[in-house]
Amino acid sequence: MKWIPAFSKRTMFIYFILLCLLYLLYALNTCLVDERKFNIKHIFLKQHISTYKNTAIRLATLLGFSVSSEVNKYRRLRPSGAPRRRLPDALIIGVKKCGTRALLEFLRLHPDVRAAGSEVHFFDKFYHKGFEWYRQRMPATLEGQLTMEKTPSYWVTRSAPRRVHAMNPAVRLLAVVRDPVTRAVSDYTQSASKRPSLPRFEQLALVNSTHNWGVPWSIVDATWGPVRLGVYARPLRRWLRRFPRRRLLLVSGERLVADPAAEMARVQEFLGLKKVITEKHFYFNSTKGFPCLLKSETSPTPHCLGKTKGRSHPHIDPSAIERLREFYRPYNERFYELSGINFGWP
Ligand SMILES: Nc1ncnc2c1ncn2[C@@H]1O[C@H](COP(=O)(O)OS(=O)(=O)O)[C@@H](OP(=O)(O)O)[C@H]1O
Hey, which of 75, 159, 202, 325 has its CA 20 to 30 A from 41? Predict the structure, then answer.
């Protein structure tokens, strides 16, 4: 052990204190430039490595050592605690009219999640604009916070799995699914609210045909958008060709209404988030018939989702509902097999 310089205990102690002071000053500096709330996870976990690195660089510079060009980048960098826009870490990819807005709004209650407010439609409509354009649409986040976006049409966009994979193969995907019959009625209700002259649901969902024995019979029009979108097995297969099953969380639209806190516990676990969103955040609004929020980042008072969420549906002939249920049954079975979850739709 002769090669160890013979420092006195006193000198070593002074060096140790100096190092601790430098680290403390650096950590404090990081907090002060951060205009948001002090975030324990952010400072002490995610930034740990870069904090040590930057402190070492500062120390080296102070002691008069020259620093390499790579290290010189440090001077141009903003303090590492400053918020900046990043590509999403997680995406809500669908399914239309299954509760995607509710999921996003609930997730926004979490201090470690920041999400784009409106649907960005990058992977379906604006892919040609490039990832930099996409990044600019994202909210600024601190290191350690998740950046999110929801665009339900990604679920059925054929090129979306490949494109999302090209952005980040480790991205986490969430898809909300609900009974395809209710989903179809919800989809129709939305269209009818924009076009009051739209024919009745039954007329669009079913086409009259003649049964083999001459008995009039109606068959489901599987080409009609609101019906086609409820065949979940096909798009799921496409996503699973690109992403392992563990990267995709299927959220139950029914449970998101019946027990939002329990469903959000699954979501938070999947996203690797601390369980912050709990029963305390929700109350059931009997007028609306849906869970609403007690408070959120944007509103300190109790509030529900907008008027376009939770519309009342028109009455649909029960025989048409039954025809649709028969139609979806084999597709639902296939979907349960592929996903490994039995959603128990009637
Ligand atoms: N908490 C809460 N409040 C209101 N609505 C809720 C909620 N949770 C789930 N839902 C259901 O979400 C349905 C709308 O789904 P999406 O947000 O995915 O619609 S969209 O695709 O973004 O247009 C919406 O469909 P409709 O009932 O047909 O309006 C709701 O059934």
Answer: 75
